[in-house]
Amino acid sequence: MEIIRLTSKKIKNLKKYELHKDIENTESDLFLYRQNELLKIFKSPNYDYINNKMFVLNKLFYIKDNSDLFEIVWPNSLVKVSGRSNGYTMDFVKSNTNLSRILNSSDVSIEDKIYFLKVIGKILSKIEYDDTLSSVDFHLGDIHEGNFIYDNKTNSIKVVDIDSSYVKGSLAPTSKFLTFNDKLWDFPNKYPLDENDRHIPNHNTTILSFIYMLLNLITGEYSPDMSIKDFCNILNKLNDLGFNKALLDSIYNIYLPKDNMFDYYLLNTITTKLVLKYKEIYNRER
To answer: How far lies 259's CA from each of 136, 187, 190, 204, 207, in Å?
Structure first.
């Protein structure tokens, strides 16, 4: 594992890499580094935060060396700034489009959007059944549309923000779909909390996050902040429109005590016609 040592002055002289204005990034700064790399520097001065990031990154180097998961943008080197561990480098996917922009674009067909979710489902399944990842209890910690990118050169989807992953012994990361999600507090065995009252990523949170993305694709406005009542109203509408019962049962299960189960092949039951019909009814009611 290479360790790169930089000064604060050197960092300031690097060209900043700006994400699209629709993409949130509050925890770090990104810089173009060397020929084909990005440099990620964490903003937080909190020792425990940085120490946990370094713990996770060291585990990721082990995983990278023993896994063939090319769908993940892995760390390449640890970075010390003025003697303090504070970031890492990664491969720079030069021609990319963030998946949140694709899924929210009216120029992309519903059929293509469903296809992209199918690919994400395959990636999540591959991660879950990877022996190397399982050996360190690895789980993606912040699964949402913005943490996947489409590589325009290779026509593939890749996972980014990998430092927000969870491994055995680490703290639970901040997560768009999990942190402050009070609907999960009633299921402490299914969605356990760590000492900081953050939900520990596991099999159940992976499927939960994927289903949130799926609901947002279908409805165009679903949010984890919605009440259980609104969640059930959406499922009732989907049922009335003829969405697959097994699909709806899997979705409904996220707010029940038993473990989440999702057969990604159920995505094949979702058609453009069904999605358009839902949005037509919803827009009319609004």
So the answer is: 21, 10, 7, 6, 10
With 70 as the cut, is the pLDDT of residue 285 above it? no
**Is residue 8 located within the same domain as residue 63?**
yes
Q: For residue 217, which amino acid is it?
A: L
CATH code of 82's domain: 3.30.200
Each residue of 20-38: pLDDT tens digit?
Answer: 777 777 788 999 998 899 9
Structure tokens at 91: 């491969």
Domain boundary among 36, 61, 91: 91
In the structure, what pLDDT confidence band is assigned to residue 284 with cuts at 50, 70 and 90? Answer: low
> Do 163 and 147 lie in a common domain?
yes
Q: Taking Cα atoms as reference points, which of 273, 276, 267, 274 lies closest to residue 119?
A: 267
CATH number of domain containing 123: 1.10.510.10
Which residues lie below 8 Å from residue 187, measured CB to CB, with a gap of 6+?
255, 257
Q: What is the rounded distance in angstroms from the CA atom of residue 65 to the CA atom of residue 78?
A: 15
Is there a contact between 243 and 250 (Cβ–Cβ < 8 Å)?
no
pLDDT, tens digit, 9 for 90 and up, residues 108-147: 999 999 999 999 999 999 999 999 999 999 999 999 999 9
Which residue, of 34, 59, 91, is where some domain finishes? 91
Other beta carbons less than 10 A from residue 162's beta carbon: 24
